[in-house]
Amino acid sequence: MGDKKPLLIKLIRRDKLLLLMFLPVFLYYLIFCYLPMPGILIAFKNFTPGHGVFGGDWVGLKWLSQFVHSRYFWRLLRNTFLLAFYPLVIGFSIPIFFAICVVEIKNGLFKRFAQTVTYLPHFISTVVIAGMIINFLSPTDGIVNTMLASLGMAKINFMMAPEWFRSIFTVSGVWQSFGFSSIIYIAAIMGIDQEMYDSGKIDGVNKFQEVWHLTLPSLKPTIVILLLLSIGGIMSVNFEKVYLLYNGATYETADVISTYVYRQGIESQNFGFATAVGLFNSVISFILVYAANQASRRVNDMSLW
C-alpha cells in the first residue's frame, strides 16, 4: 500500500496535462448524466414541483402502465425504432466504403478537398440543417419542387406528408454524418500492416480482392464495436432534428418517444409520467445493447465487455 500511493501521485503528475484535457468531459458526464440520476424516483411518484425529488406519494408503476396501455404506445415505439433503424441499415456501411475510397485517392489535394467537404455537414448546427431542409423542400419556391415543376411534375408538400418524413430524416442524417464517421475507419485502415498488402500484390490479388479479403477483415473489430454502440443508441433518435422537422400533420410517422416525453414533461408539466416514459426508453436501449453484445460475443468472439 505504501508503494501504490507514491506511484499514483507520480502518474498523476506525469499525466497532469492529459487529465486536465479530460476534466471537461468528466465534469460533463458527472453533472448531466450521473448527478441527475436520483431524479429517476419521479417515475414512481406523484411528483409536483416544490416538493422535491423525494417528496410526493408513491404510485409504483402507475405511469408506466398508463403509457403502455395508451393509444400512442405502439406508434411511438414503431417510429422511434424505424427512425433509428433506417439510418443504421442505410448509413452504417457508407462511412466504411468512403474511408476505403479516401485512402485509395493518390492526389493529396483532392483527398483533402473530399474529406473537408464531407466532414463539414457534421459541424453544421441541427437548427441550420433543419432550416435548409425546410427551404429546399418548400412547396412554393424550394429547389426540389422547382425542379419537379420544370419536369412537368406536380409539386409536393413534403413537410406536411407523413409518408415522406422517414425518407427525409434518413437521407439528411446519412448525408450529415457519413463523412465524420469515416474518420475512425480511415485511422483503422492507416494502421493496417502494409506488408500484408505487399504480400497480396505478390500473390496477384486485384483491388476488389484486396478490399474484400484484406481491408474489411482487418476492420472487423472496429466495425463490430461501432455497430454495438449504434445498436445501443437505436432508441435515442435525434430529438432536436425530429422536433424541428415534424408537425401535427406528420405525427403518425414522425412522433418518437423523446418528443412525446418533451410534450408531456415540458409542455403539459406531467413530470412523473414523462420520467417514466424516458426511463422505459433507457431500459429498452440497455436491453438492446446487452443482447447485441452477447450475440457478438458468441458469433464473433468480440464484445464491449
UniProtKB/TrEMBL annotation:
The keyword NAD does not apply. This is Sugar ABC transporter permease. Belongs to the binding-protein-dependent transport system permease family. It is a multi-pass membrane protein. The chain crosses the membrane at residues 20-44, 81-105, 117-137, 168-190, 211-235, 271-292. CDD domains: TM_PBP2. One of its GO terms (biological process) is transmembrane transport. Residues 77-292 form the ABC transmembrane type-1 domain.
